[in-house]
TrEMBL record, chain A:
Pfam families from the UniProt entry: adh_short, zf-ChsH2
Protein name listed in UniProt: ChsH2 rubredoxin-like zinc ribbon domain-containing protein
Start and end residues of each ChsH2 rubredoxin-like zinc ribbon domain: 34-68
Domain of life of the organism encoding this protein: Bacteria
InterPro entries found in the cross-reference section: ChsH2_Znr, NA-bd_OB-fold, NAD(P)-bd_dom_sf, SDR_fam, Thioester_dehydratase-like
UniProtKB/TrEMBL annotation, chain B:
Keyword flag Transmembrane: no
Identification of the protein by name: Acetyl-CoA acetyltransferase
Keywords: Transferase
GO molecular function per UniProt: acetyl-CoA C-acyltransferase activity
PANTHER family noted in UniProt: ACETYL-COA C-ACETYLTRANSFERASE (PTHR42870), NON-SPECIFIC LIPID-TRANSFER PROTEIN-LIKE 2 (PTHR42870:SF1)
Length: 412, 391
């Protein structure tokens, strides 16, 4: 973390326009997105003969089986040859030259062409990773094997593939999220320059808001995502100088479908969640989209904290599930929109939080510290879909295997 | 499965080498270049294009058309038609296919034409969607294009066999000297080894003069039986041997040899000759490292000996090892798929005594090579033909 604080932007200079690296991929090539989004190194592996296929194929070149599922494979490799690309016809990469590229003999089998981290040594060992590029498409990046050197995260290509909060100015949209203090401390600990924390109805007394105000580097602002005027006012002041948004809108109430007022309750929760996200997208999102390549301080990422109930309704929280599902839908659209500006949308899914509302839920529950650590980790690694805590991980694995099983067992 | 014996070519000849002068950029479509080449073929042979009954077309820039659309576009009515999308190996493949067609009587006169245009943004567009593997797994990692792919081959060759930049430079300098006697070469200025060494790096260790310059152009010739050529009163060269191979040696971690190494004995046996019997050689030269692989794989020297070979031989048309006597693509320009045809028409001109100022004396037997299609991390296609003077 020795990169100096970027100088103040000169408003007379042109703001660099966001460009995207080459985006087209084959149908099978898209398989790798799933691995890159969650930080796994997985390639196609033949279910019949075990041969690892790369680049993505439609048939195994050894046995011609079409059964080539995405499978976790060893990430090691040896550098066979390298080049430094100094000249390219692609406008996006022209900004990034010189670019180190390696031809790697992977331990998994195939030769792999990858970006090389600046610390990789000639003919040395490397650890391969799948990353998402600025447009969200999969690329391969090779780290030197072994512990990372100091400032390893400063590799210029790696910075394009991640959203390190170092020196970033951050908007945390809802200071009343139960993990807001821990989130701010974790982000500041990762080098964030400043965190603006939105608080609706600041006149309401709150020990948590008082605690936030006491954190150095945190600045409370008036922001009520339910109120279009409030969002526009905040954006008018800040939208052009935010690199990371953490959408922490949190309004949890349990309830069943037969509760009187269930519809009204969904509406209330959607005002904060889904509709709040719409209002934030139209203001802060639009501004970030134009700043994806803004010099030393490009807009980096938008994090949405979501419950796994967004993906599958929970009987104890029917109305909340509906509101979360709506918010996830808006988040997906926001991801599609911000891709054009090279800004990542990270959806962080969690189970029950370790707070009063979930007193009756047995552990494991997710604490504020683990949630915050997970958010910082996702940004630094450039992840797109993150499942935090044992409950969310269990949910993901079971959904991958058989979503109908999860649905039935939840609702019996 | 054992390979059966190959049948020798019976009286297959190549005639009428034509070149539509290359241009760095062209506002015209590939079709214009095909039309210009066909017109020259017709004029020079005295055979109306309407009477040519075979067409073999190679192009990267003909989309959305293929060869069949050209028949209508250019007013041909052929009974034998092929499109050869093999990049730098297209010429060799075209000759092989056309040869068997005329031999068997499926066609009498096959026009083999490679033509490509080059608009101002064509090159970037063709790099970005060159192949599915390149699109998925090469281009997104820095968009280095062919320069980066060949940089890996070059780096590996230097590491393994001790080649230096000067060795590659000797090839480029000799070819430039050859090009100065070729009016069609786009490079008109002499190149010194000092200038070669001082050129800016493009994708280390590949520097500026290691790279071909994309351009527009067309090269073409006719394939027919000897009796047809004699009846038309056309000078010709005989086809005596050929090989073709795709995706050879996948077990090599980095490409150090092409398919030639696998089939070279077959080539010389078919033509009844040896490396010593080749008077003039046209290698496929998109990058000098590939020339070295060809010197080795075709038996002009042993594996790993090409650096020493270029130090001890004069590669100009007046030298002891005349190679790429018209300047090759490195000094003429790379007109897309015509890059492979360039070596064929140059070999024909040398064997027919039509090479003007750059004529190699006593050129009786020549070899033209093809290489192409960096589908992923290596070139997949390789081929060779041996041609002999008619008299």
């Amino acid at each position: 973390m020795t990169r100096p604080v970027p100088p103040k932007k000169n408003p007379l200079l042109r703001t660099q326009v966001p460009l995207l690296p080459p985006q087209p991929r084959s149908l099978r090539g898209h398989l790798l997105i799933a691995a890159a989004a969650t930080g796994r190194f997985a390639l196609q592996r033949c279910a019949e003969c075990g041969t690892v296929a790369y680049p993505a194929r439609d048939a195994c070149s050894e046995c011609l089986s079409p059964d080539l599922p995405l499978t976790d494979v060893p990430a090691g490799g040896t550098l066979l040859s390298e080049t430094t690309i100094r000249n390219t016809a692609d406008p996006y990469f022209r900004r990034l030259t010189p670019i180190r590229q390696g031809l790697i003999q992977s331990d998994a089998g195939p030769q792999i062409i990858a970006f090389l981290h600046r610390d990789c040594t000639p003919n040395g060992r490397v650890t391969l990773s799948l990353k998402l590029d600025a447009g969200g498409q999969p690329v391969v990046f090779a780290f030197p094997e072994g512990p990372a050197a100091p400032d390893a995260e400063e590799d210029p290509i790696l910075r394009e593939l991640t959203a390190d909060p170092l020196h970033a100015r951050i908007l945390l949209t809802d200071g009343r999220h139960p993990a807001s203090v821990a989130l701010c401390k974790a982000l500041l600990g990762a080098g964030a320059a400043h965190i603006f924390v939105g608080v609706a109805e600041r006149w309401k007394p709150s020990a948590q808001i008082d605690a936030l105000a006491a954190v150095e580097g945190v600045e409370l602002i008036d922001l009520d995502p339910r109120d279009e005027r409030s969002v526009m006012d905040a954006a008018a002041d800040l939208a052009g100088k935010i690199e990371i948004v953490v959408n922490s809108a949190y309004h949890y109430r349990p309830g069943s479908l037969l509760d009187s007022g269930a519809a009204l309750r969904i509406k209330d929760m959607m005002e904060v969640g889904a509709l709040g996200l719409v209002r934030l997208s139209q203001t802060f999102g639009a501004a970030m989209m134009g700043r994806g390549a803004d010099g030393d301080r490009p807009a980096l990422a938008w994090v949405n904290l979501l419950s796994i109930t967004a993906q599958l309704a929970h009987p104890a929280a029917v109305t909340y599930s509906a509101a979360q599902a709506a918010e996830l839908s808006v988040a997906q659209s926001l991801r599609g929109m911000l891709r054009g500006g090279g800004v990542r949308v990270v959806n962080v899914f969690h189970g029950a939080l370790d707070i009063d509302w979930f007193e009756q839920v047995p552990p494991p529950k997710l604490g504020a510290g683990a949630l915050s650590k997970g958010v910082v980790d996702a940004l630094k690694r450039g992840l797109e879909d993150v499942y935090l805590g044992a409950e969310a991980e269990d949910f993901r694995e079971r959904m991958d295997q058989n979503p109908k099983e999860v649905e039935r067992s939840r609702w019996t | 499965m054992t390979a059966g014996p190959r049948q020798a070519y019976r009286d297959v000849v190549l005639t009428v080498p034509v070149t539509v002068p290359y241009q760095r950029y062209s506002i015209d479509a590939a079709h214009w270049w095909f039309g210009a080449a066909l017109r020259q073929l017709s004029k020079a042979s005295g055979i109306s294009h309407k009477d040519m009954d075979g067409l073999c077309a190679a192009s990267f820039s003909l989309a959305p058309d293929s060869a069949v659309a050209l028949t209508q576009h250019l007013g041909m009515s052929v009974r034998w038609l092929d499109t050869v999308p093999l990049g730098g190996a297209s010429a060799v493949a075209s000759i092989r296919r056309a040869a068997r067609a005329v031999e068997s009587g499926d066609a009498d006169v096959v026009a083999c034409i490679a033509a490509d245009t080059n608009h101002i943004d064509s090159f970037r567009q063709s790099l970005s969607n060159f192949s599915r593997f390149a699109q998925d797994a090469v281009y997104p990692m820095g968009a280095g294009g062919a320069n980066a792919s060949f940089a890996h081959l070059t780096r590996n060759y230097m590491d393994r066999f001790g080649a230096t930049r000067e060795d590659f430079g000797r090839i480029c300098v000799a070819q430039r000297q050859n090009a100065l006697s070729n009016p069609n070469a786009l490079m008109k200025k002499p190149l010194t080894l000092d200038a070669y060494m001082a050129a800016p790096p493009i994708s280390d260790p590949v520097h500026l003069f290691d790279c071909v310059m994309p351009c527009a152009g067309a090269d073409a010739f006719l394939v027919m039986r000897e009796e047809t050529a004699r009846a038309q009163g056309l000078d010709f060269v005989r086809l005596t041997g050929s090989i073709e191979r795709h995706h050879s040696f996948p077990e090599d971690p980095v490409q150090e040899r092409g398919g030639w190494a696998r089939d070279v004995d077959d080539l010389y046996a078919m033509a009844g000759t040896s490396p010593q019997g080749i008077d003039v050689l046209q290698t496929y030269d998109d990058y000098p490292v590939i020339i070295m692989l060809q010197f080795e794989d075709l038996g002009f020297c042993g594996k790993g000996e090409a650096p020493e070979f270029v130090r001890s031989h004069d590669l100009t048309f007046g030298g002891d090892f005349p190679q790429n006597t018209g300047g090759g693509q490195l000094s003429t320009g790379q007109a897309g798929a015509a890059g492979g045809h360039l070596g064929v028409v140059e070999t024909m001109r040398q064997l027919m005594g039509q090479a003007g100022d750059r004529q190699v004396s006593e050129a009786r037997r020549g070899m033209a090579l093809g290489f192409g299609m960096i589908n992923y991390e290596r070139g997949l296609s390789s081929g060779a033909v041996i041609l002999e003077a008619s008299a």
